[in-house]
Amino acid sequence: MISPSSPPPLPASKTVSTVLGPVPLHTIGLTDAHNHVWINPPAGVAPGAPVLNDYGASLRELLLFHQAGGRALLDFQPYGCGRDARLLRQLARESGVHLITCTGFHLRKYYPPESPLWELSTEAASELFIREITLGTEETLSERDPAPVQAGFIKAACEATLEASPRHLFEAAACAARQTGAMVAVHTEKGASAEQIVDFFHRQGLPPTRLMLCHIDKRPDPLLHQELARAGVLLEYDTFFRPQYHPEERLWPLLEAMGKADLCGSIALATDLADLSMWASTGKGPGLASLPLIIRAHLLERGFNPAEVQAMLGENVLQRLAG
Prior knowledge:
Blueprint: E1 15-18, E2 21-24, E3 31-35, H1 55-67, E4 72-75, H2 85-95, E5 98-100, E6 102-104, H3 122-134, H4 138-141, E7 153-157, H5 167-180, E8 184-187, H6 194-203, E9 211-214, H7 222-231, E10 234-237, H8 251-260, E11 267-269, H9 290-301, H10 306-322
Parallel strand pairs: 3-4, 4-5, 6-7, 7-8, 8-9, 9-10, 10-11
Antiparallel strand pairs: 1-2
Helix pairs in contact: 1-2, 3-5
């Protein structure tokens, strides 16, 4: 870890595209880099898909997050598999939390068999992603909403391997990112294919500085993480409250190794609690507020200085979102 210091001020002129419109980057604060606050799966989705469709519970959880010091959250549910940007906008207004929604695509299992997304051409999919970023999400545009909600980033979901993933949709995500300047956040299956994903986007003309690799802490190889970070990739960690991934033996030592390598500027922290049982308002889980309350405290206890903590708990991902 570096010596304690005050973090440099964030650029006052840059903005982040939230569900309530653009917000100055420097005014936002602590941000959960990967989560879900509303998922209402469409009919036909296979059993087992996450469900978060209790508006009152979502609002209570966001209010707890805000009361604890949380100020923003990236919602990772894209169009066609349970997103409702209209409700995200309402939740943001009532909770005071800046919500940033995404365009792009999730794993195929989260869509009904008849979903048209998988039959789109690369060009048509790219046009969809660009439209959701520049004009508004499909559900707000279709209702001629006077203030359509714009997506703030592009999600691309990698299956067990990159080869098993929809190449045309990955190409569409790269094209949309090139044209809009949006960040691409890639769902990985326990960090698999990380190197191939970065190489794919590089060959598509998108540098590593425009990428965030999600759930990469499930593959806790410090040398790999340091290589990716030095190449410019933002690494998202979120297994703090998932005992099956042994965070005390894997995630926390990984974080400390990255800190010693002076690479805290390449990490974005999250909790990814897409399960009501893991929310404080509905179950016995840590809840969204665990990021500002528990994780922040543990970082400071383990020797990370305030500037590093501030970077990992918001600044790094916000800077990528702002371009």
